[in-house]
Amino acid sequence: MADDPTTLWDIARLFLKLGTTAFGGPAAHIAMLEREVVARRGWLTEAEFLDHLGASNLIPGPTSTELVLHIGRRRAGWPGLLVAGACFIVPAALMVGVLAWAYVHYGSLPAVAGLSYGVKPVVIAVVLQALWKLGGSAVKSAWLATVAMIALGLSLLGVSPVWVLAAGAVLAAAGTASQLRSRASLLAGFGGRPPAIAVAAAATGVSAGLWPIFLAFAKIGAMVFGGGYVLLVFLRAELVERHPWLTQQQLLDAVAVGQVTPGPVFTTATFLGYLLHGTTGAIAATMGIFLPAFILVAVSAPLILKIRASRTASAMLDGINVASLALMAMVTWQLARSAIMDWITAGLAVASAVLVFRFPRLNSAWLVLGAGALGALRYAFL
């Protein structure tokens, strides 16, 4: 199937579906992408998928969206990159825009607790199955298994994801070059947490122009490594502290919406842009935060084959791949702690795990939608 032609309609149909149903954040998106493009469609081999995931982790921006862009380009060239990205981003942005409208007009968020209650346990099962499959391809040697454990340990210690990936790359290259005796010194400097940013006082609600909004979010999109929680740090620094445009509560509400809606967590920008300048502000913010990802993937995608042609660079990519899986494992553990809250969520997680491991080609979107409906019904009849 990997050699069969892929039309732009094939690309659009898949990523419109994922943009509408891919709940759970970047780790869940990566798991769902692996199921769709490797297990179900055979568009990529597991090794190719891992290489594109590693390349996505090398650049700033929304990792799962960048992986979508890589897949679109790999299957249908530059038009595929544009179609895949637009189809993955737009459905989520539209949903977030509707929630932003409701927030502005009614002063609070529509109830989303039930949806989140049902979806999160299923997401855990989907991510675990992806980790199991990708780990079999990524961990090619005992040393790479050691690198994965070191990366997981660094993540548990709170080290920035950027440094975890860097450590994975350097350690894997050192192992290939038979320089293991110096690996202790290679870890120097990877132990610090990112600098804390002080909580700012409430913003004054100053209105912002469309061009400043676009530039502010483009700057954030070009700088953020590490996913949704790191995004919050950059958003607070830019929109609460540097520009007194928003309050901290508005920012937290926006991040909550980004977490419980499908598609990229970076559609948080759509919500914030709407608060700042209505519909046109939502469009400006969304375009600003995602534009760097399109540019960076377009520039870096042709380099993947050249990286694999170099022994040292290829080893570094292997290290980034196993470190990426370690970061996914850490995120899954954090999610599980908040998702498994009673016997119902535990049962959903176990049942979903049995289904996805027993039937690897099962479309996980149906599990997500079904669990979301069950969660919503539970909260409706409380």
Report the mean per-residue pLDDT as an integer.
Answer: 79
Q: Give the number of helices.
A: 16
- Runs in which pLDDT lies below 50 for 5 or more consecutive residues are 178-205
> What is the 3D shape?
globular
Strand content: under 5%
| Count of domain modules | 1
- Note the gap between the termini: 48 Å
Helix-strand topology string: HHHHHHHHHHHHHHHH
Q: How helical, in percent, are the residues?
A: over 70%
Alpha-beta content class: mainly alpha
For the sheet with most strands, the description reads: none
Q: Give the total of beta strands.
A: 0
Instruction: Specify Rg, calculated over alpha carbons.
Output: 20 Å
Notes on the structure:
- Helix content is 75%, strand content 0%.
- The chain is an all-alpha fold.
- It has helices at 8-21, 26-40, 46-58, 63-106, 113-138, 142-156, 161-176, 183-186, 210-221, 228-242, 248-260, 268-300, 304-309, 311-339, 343-358, 364-380.
- Helix 6 runs antiparallel to helix 7 (161-176).
- It has one domain (8-194, 297-380).
- The chain is built from 16 helices and no strands.
Question: What's the short story on this structure?
Answer:
75% of the residues lie in helices and 0% in strands. It is an all-alpha fold.
Main attributes?
382 residues; mainly alpha; 16 helices
Give the SSE map.
Layout: H1 8-21, H2 26-40, H3 46-58, H4 63-106, H5 113-138, H6 142-156, H7 161-176, H8 183-186, H9 210-221, H10 228-242, H11 248-260, H12 268-300, H13 304-309, H14 311-339, H15 343-358, H16 364-380
